[in-house]
Amino acid sequence: MNNYKNLKLWEKSIELAVEIYALVGKFPMEEKFGLASQIKRSAVSISSNIAEGSGRNSLKEFKNFLAYSYGSACELETQLIIAEKVKLIGKNDLKELQTQITEIQKMNFALSKSLLKKETQD
């Protein structure tokens, strides 16, 4: 339906996931299958849902996958807050990542809104 690779939202989500992988790579080994794994899955899920939704056959389905992507961003932020509270990441890392997550969420909302507008025009 849409070429997700042309979406700035998708690009930003990929960049965030790459940063998350670098950050989580510094976690202690005992976190490999715990919080680190959850954080990586949430980060990957943001861009993956955008890509999957764009490949669906309707605007409604695309909007649904954007909602899943938004939810994954919220999940990621929650996990990063926990990581900061248990001293796996610093406050500065958390703030920087929260800024990126917020930007992605705003872009997601704007795209969803434009799809809704487009859907009602058809």
What can you see in these coordinates?
With 122 residues, this protein is mainly α. Helix content is 78%, strand content 0%. The two termini are 15 Å apart.
How would you concisely characterize the structure shown here?
It contains 4 helices and no strands.
Oligomeric nature of the chains? single chain
Query: Kindly, what is the distance between the CA atoms of the first and last residues, rounded to a whole number of angstroms?
Result: 15 Å
What's the helical proportion of residues? over 70%
**3D shape:** elongated
The radius of gyration is 15 Å
* Largest sheet data: none
Which class of secondary structure composition applies to the elements? mainly alpha
Give the ordered list of helices and strands: HHHH
What percent of residues are in strands?
A: under 5%
Averaged pLDDT, please?
94
Q: Which residues form runs of ≥5 with pLDDT under 50? A: none
Number of helices: 4
Question: What's the number of extended β-strand segments?
Answer: 0
Write the topology of this structure.
Blueprint: H1 8-24, H2 35-54, H3 59-85, H4 91-121
